[in-house]
UniProtKB/TrEMBL annotation, chain A:
<dbReference type="GO" id="GO:0050660">
    <property type="term" value="F:flavin adenine dinucleotide binding"/>
</dbReference>
<feature type="binding site">
    <location>
        <position position="214"/>
    </location>
    <ligand>
        <name>FAD</name>
    </ligand>
</feature>
<feature type="binding site">
    <location>
        <begin position="270"/>
        <end position="277"/>
    </location>
    <ligand>
        <name>FAD</name>
    </ligand>
</feature>
<dbReference type="Pfam" id="PF01012">
    <property type="entry name" value="ETF"/>
</dbReference>
<protein>
    <submittedName>
        <fullName>Electron transfer flavoprotein alpha subunit</fullName>
    </submittedName>
</protein>
<keyword id="KW-0274">FAD</keyword>
<dbReference type="InterPro" id="IPR014731">
    <property type="entry name" value="ETF_asu_C"/>
</dbReference>
From TrEMBL, chain B:
<dbReference type="GO" id="GO:0005886">
    <property type="term" value="C:plasma membrane"/>
</dbReference>
<dbReference type="InterPro" id="IPR051460">
    <property type="entry name" value="HdrC_iron-sulfur_subunit"/>
</dbReference>
<keyword id="KW-0560">Oxidoreductase</keyword>
<keyword id="KW-0411">Iron-sulfur</keyword>
<dbReference type="GO" id="GO:0051539">
    <property type="term" value="F:4 iron, 4 sulfur cluster binding"/>
</dbReference>
<dbReference type="InterPro" id="IPR017896">
    <property type="entry name" value="4Fe4S_Fe-S-bd"/>
</dbReference>
<keyword id="KW-0004">4Fe-4S</keyword>
UniProtKB/TrEMBL annotation, chain C:
<dbReference type="InterPro" id="IPR014730">
    <property type="entry name" value="ETF_a/b_N"/>
</dbReference>
<dbReference type="InterPro" id="IPR012255">
    <property type="entry name" value="ETF_b"/>
</dbReference>
<dbReference type="InterPro" id="IPR014729">
    <property type="entry name" value="Rossmann-like_a/b/a_fold"/>
</dbReference>
<comment type="subunit">
    <text>Heterodimer of an alpha and a beta subunit.</text>
</comment>
<dbReference type="GO" id="GO:0009055">
    <property type="term" value="F:electron transfer activity"/>
</dbReference>
<dbReference type="Pfam" id="PF01012">
    <property type="entry name" value="ETF"/>
</dbReference>
<feature type="domain" description="Electron transfer flavoprotein alpha/beta-subunit N-terminal">
    <location>
        <begin position="21"/>
        <end position="209"/>
    </location>
</feature>
Length: 326, 384, 255
């Protein structure tokens, strides 16, 4: 009989990512309802000692594999260890973060265990004793609820920031279970790793885009938008007018004659909203417009608008968001 | 041997797609010499003569955004071709061979996708098609109405262009025309997708619209755009759609002559007329726009150096409006510069695409504080 | 060099999604080759050009998928294989099982695919296929230097990028990167008509439906709430900015 809700710890350089706490908090509730234990799986180099943190967020037990070979993520090493552990302990479910590595390892492990995997989920609930996952499909234009009725473990990757992390309970301890773990033959040989200081995503991949138009008045003022973008982890875009004025290169252009985008949040600053621009971004989930001209077309598609000078509003907005996201 | 067969097949495929006239071409080069692409500040690789040459012989190398999809279908070359070849038709057929296999520019794929799902090329909600008439009384089309007013997708959705639709409505009302609008049930006329080469999508649209109009009892159609006009008039008959079609300027011109449209208020200023290719060269409606503006008291109408059959295109036709044209290669920039030299205060035109292109150029060249782009309907409305 | 590209046909990005009962309505949308797979095909063609290799494109789906396969052939691929799963309700496990079985019967040195499909975005089929076939996988590849027996690739990882070497055969999944997928040429389109397109069923690759039965079941589909009318956030800039930040978090829940 399968037992236990597992959370795969997302850590980088010995620092546990917030999404892990979100998964633990949600997993705790499921484990309680099912009367099962909540376990974290912690892989990495020099990670022993982080179990306490995981316990504070609800883990009953932490399987730790601390090894030189796990310093950097590799598909094979992480897959081999996680799959072996799961074969041995037969958990009910394994929850992972929907990150590059989380997605990567999840697919391999799911196949090796012959089970189902639901990726990119935004919610998880127990319905009639069955774990049901919500995931947006077709770029968020539809939502599917799915489950894995028979195969075990149920596997899912869940987006960061969609589930709430509960407050940690100081002193709540988890049983630390150090495991030898066999990384097996690692066929992906890392030659080099380049860390990005500023991880501004690519325009068409970004969840959030901050875009500027003619109202920006000059190339130097894009710095204002870049600062806002960095607070949000957003990409920076530009309207055709701003690109034509030579303030940004064509690769930044959003619109039908540039790139078509549909991020979760699109912040248009000083963009009037010519039809070509709208055609390239109006499927964004949430649109914010900041423009001096209350008649600007962009307000017709905006969910939230501020009629005002972007040079006043944008820096203030940046500060407010910084506070919120801290 | 097999390569040679491929060569023949390419030509055959072009012929099969309606480009049979490619075989008449004698490679004289008059077309390329007339083509505005060759007259721009920044050199373009596009050359229609050599494209025909490659197409006939089955050579590779012209299937790119800036070659096969460069032609704006402005018809400048065709009015001069000594063999009388309908060059834009051949270009269209060459595109359609490629389009069938999904090899069209990314931006145009989005246009086709939008046509399929939303019935318009602008990725806007189908249900919003009638939003432009929110704050005005627009009669609905019923069988007792004489005309259907078909509002181009651009004028239905683009905030700027919606003003054109509204002006046309006001003018028709003022002249006592019996007309109505269908609204959300309508779909794009299909001009743009046909020019992209998406024949299947065009056929679907044409059949849908013809069926809709027949069911509603439509006999006569007024269009706001010369592109819709051209398509209804010249391309729907092969699908069984026989309608009497007018571009709004043509009908208003008749009404003016009959004394039903009265233009009394003066409109001051120097106006230069930019001839939309599909109204001018393609449809030879040279007089109606000029008669109308000529009847506006005080208005000083001037001409571009190249006008009527020699008018320079805005570069928005042939689906180019959805593609990026490099600065230095935009025909509309040339137009705006000439208009500025002529010290015009207004560039008047009668096509939604031309307005989009010209206004963009006006902004990019920082001329928007000395000049505006207006649709003829907007000028006439001021004169009512 | 034998190259196999895994390909999926998807709704295009402009598709308006509507429901047909408890299913996604497939009418009135454009079907296109998954854009990430176009990158994979391009990568495959470049490897082919370097080594005088052969590119086979493999897909799972109904007869409509031939259009996307033909595009790959017109771009320059040599052969196409289309396996009809014979069922509507399939999941990534099903697709991967079928693909792996079909590919298992082919010769290959390198397997390629898009790292995700723009429809369900599940990013797991290629990984699963690699696992079944016992070849290493590297995901989100933006650049690849392929040699006779190994590939050195640049790929996106959390917080940056990595350069990874793998021995061949291996599975590489393409992220959008520096290489731009080519358009089919007129000549390519003509040639594509004569290239082999194999249409087979599960039986032809020795599978029965039970072996490929899905693990995941879609319980229900819904559409997101319709867009509410936009609102203007009033007040002085400071006040408005604060309120906007609050609305984005609490009402729109987008940050
Ligand atoms: S002008 Fe006519 S005949 Fe001369 S090259 Fe062009 S298409 Fe051919
Ligand atoms: S139609 Fe116009 S753009 Fe096209 S080739 Fe002829 S002159 Fe050039």
């Amino acid at each position: 009989m399968a037992k236990g809700i597992w959370v795969f710890t997302e850590q980088r350089d010995g620092e546990i990512k917030k999404v892990t706490y979100e998964l633990l908090s949600a997993g705790r509730k499921v484990a309680d309802s099912l009367g099962e234990e909540l376990c974290a799986v912690l892989l990495g180099k020099g990670v022993s000692g982080l179990e306490g943190k995981l316990g504070e967020y609800g883990a009953d037990k932490v399987y730790t594999v601390d090894s030189e070979a796990l310093e950097n993520y590799t598909t094979d090493a992480y897959t081999n260890i996680l799959a072996d552990l799961a074969k041995e302990h037969q958990p009910t479910a394994i929850l992972l973060a929907c990150s590059a590595s989380g997605r990567d390892v999840a697919a391999q492990v799911a196949q090796r265990l012959g089970t189902g995997l639901m990726t990119d989920c935004t919610d998880m609930a127990l319905e009639d004793g069955q774990l049901v996952f919500t995931r947006p499909v077709y770029a968020g234009k539809a939502i599917v609820k799915a489950a894995c009725p028979e195969a075990r473990p149920v596997m899912a990757t869940i987006r960061p920031n969609v589930l709430a992390a509960d407050a940690p309970q100081a002193g709540r301890a988890a049983q630390a279970v150090p495991v030898g773990g066999n990384t097996g033959d690692i066929r992906q040989v890392i030659k080099d790793i380049v860390k990005q200081i500023s991880t501004r995503p690519e325009l068409t991949e970004a969840d959030i885009i901050v875009s500027g138009g003619r109202g920006i008045k000059g190339p130097e003022n894009f710095a204002l938008l870049e600062e806002l973008a960095d607070v949000l982890g957003a990409a920076v875009g530009a309207s055709r007018a701003a690109v034509d004025a030579g303030w940004k290169s064509h690769s930044f252009q959003v619109g039908q004659t540039g790139k078509t985008v549909s991020p979760v949040l699109y912040i248009a600053c000083g963009i009037s909203g010519a039809i070509q621009h709208l055609a390239g971004m109006s499927s964004s989930k949430c649109i914010v417009a900041v423009n001096k001209d209350p008649e600007a077309n962009i307000f017709k598609v905006a969910d939230y608008g501020i009629v005002g000078d972007l040079f006043d509003v944008v820096p203030l907005l940046k500060e407010e968001l910084k506070k919120l996201l801290a | 041997m097999s390569e040679l067969m491929v060569f023949d097949e390419v030509r055959e495929a072009i012929v099969m797609s309606g480009g049979e006239e490619i075989q008449k071409c004698m490679q004289c080069g008059v077309c390329a010499g007339s083509c505005p692409w060759g007259r721009m500040e920044e050199k373009s690789e596009f050359n229609v003569r050599s494209m025909f040459h490659m197409g006939r012989l089955g050579y590779d190398g012209y299937e790119s955004d800036d070659f096969l999809f460069a032609c704006t279908t402005c018809n400048q070359c065709a009015v001069r071709c000594p063999r009388g070849i309908k060059i834009p038709e051949v270009v269209r057929s060459m595109r359609s061979v490629i389009a069938e296999t999904g090899g069209i520019p990314k931006n145009l794929k989005a246009v086709i996708g939008s046509i399929n799902s939303q019935g318009n090329p602008w990725s806007q909600e189908r249900s919003e098609r009638a939003a432009w008439m929110k704050d005005m009384e627009v009669p609905e089309y019923t069988p007792d109405k004489e005309y259907l007013l078909f509002v181009c997708c651009t004028s239905a959705y683009d905030g700027r262009s919606q003003k054109v639709a509204k002006s046309v409505v006001e003018l028709l009302k003022a002249a006592g025309v019996s007309f109505g609008v269908i609204g959300v049930e309508e779909q794009c006329c299909g001009e743009s997708v046909r020019k992209i080469g998406a024949e299947e999508e065009f056929t679907k649209l044409a059949e849908y619209n013809i069926d809709l109009y027949n069911k509603k009892g439509v006999k006569k159609i007024i269009t706001t755009s010369p592109h819709c006009y051209y398509t209804f008039k010249n391309e729907y008959p092969e699908f069984g759609g026989e309608f009497e079609v007018y571009h709004y300027t043509q009908l208003l011109d008749e009404l003016l002559a009959q004394g039903k449209l009265k233009l009394s208020k003066p409109v001051n200023g120097k106006v230069v007329y930019h001839e939309p290719c599909y109204l001018g060269r393609h449809s030879k409606a040279f007089d109606a726009p000029r008669n109308l503006m000529g009847a506006v008291p005080e208005l000083q109408l001037v001409e571009f150096d190249g006008n009527k059959d020699n008018s320079l295109c805005c570069s928005g036709g042939g689906a180019r409006i959805w593609m990026e044209t490099k600065a230095g290669q935009r025909f509309s920039d040339v137009k705006v510069k000439e208009a500025a030299e002529k010290e015009a205060q207004v560039i008047a035109t009668a096509c939604p695409y031309c307005i989009v292109m010209l206004e963009d150029s006006l902004k990019n060249l920082n001329k928007d504080d000395v000049m505006t782009v207006k649709d003829i309907s907007e000028i006439l409305k001021e004169s009512l | 060099m034998k190259i196999v590209v895994l390909m999926k046909q998807v709704f295009d990005t402009e598709a308006k999604i509507s429901l047909d009962g408890n299913k996604i309505n497939k009418q009135g949308v454009s079907l296109v080759m998954n854009p990430y797979d176009e990158y994979a095909v391009e990568l495959g063609l470049r490897i082919k050009e370097k080594f005088k290799g052969e590119v086979t494109v493999v897909s799972v789906g109904g007869p409509e998928v031939q259009d996307a396969l033909r595009q790959a052939l017109a771009m320059g691929a040599d052969k196409a294989v289309l396996v009809d799963p014979g069922a509507d309700e399939i999941d990534e496990y099903t697709t991967a099982t079928i693909l792996a079985k079909a590919i298992g019967g082919l010769e290959y040195n390198i397997l390629l695919g898009g790292f995700k499909a723009i429809d369900d975005g599940s990013c797991q089929v290629c990984g699963r296929v690699a696992e079944i076939l016992g070849v290493p996988v590297v995901n989100m590849v933006t650049q690849a230097e392929v040699e006779e027996d190994k590939a050195v690739v640049t790929c996106d990882i959390d917080g940056g990028s990595a350069v990874i070497e793998v021995k061949l055969p291996a599975m590489l999944t393409a992220q959008k990167g520096e290489i731009e997928p080519r358009y089919p040429s007129m000549k390519g389109i003509m040639q594509a008509k004569k290239k082999p397109m194999q249409k087979i069923g599960l039986g032809d690759i020795g599978l029965d439906a039970a072996q490929a039965a899905p693990k995941v079941k879609a319980l229900s589909y819904s559409l997101p709430a319709a867009r509410a009318a936009g609102k203007l956030v009033p007040g002085e800039p400071a006040e408005a900015a604060k309120e906007l930040a609050r609305l984005l978090r609490e009402e729109a829940k987008v940050i």
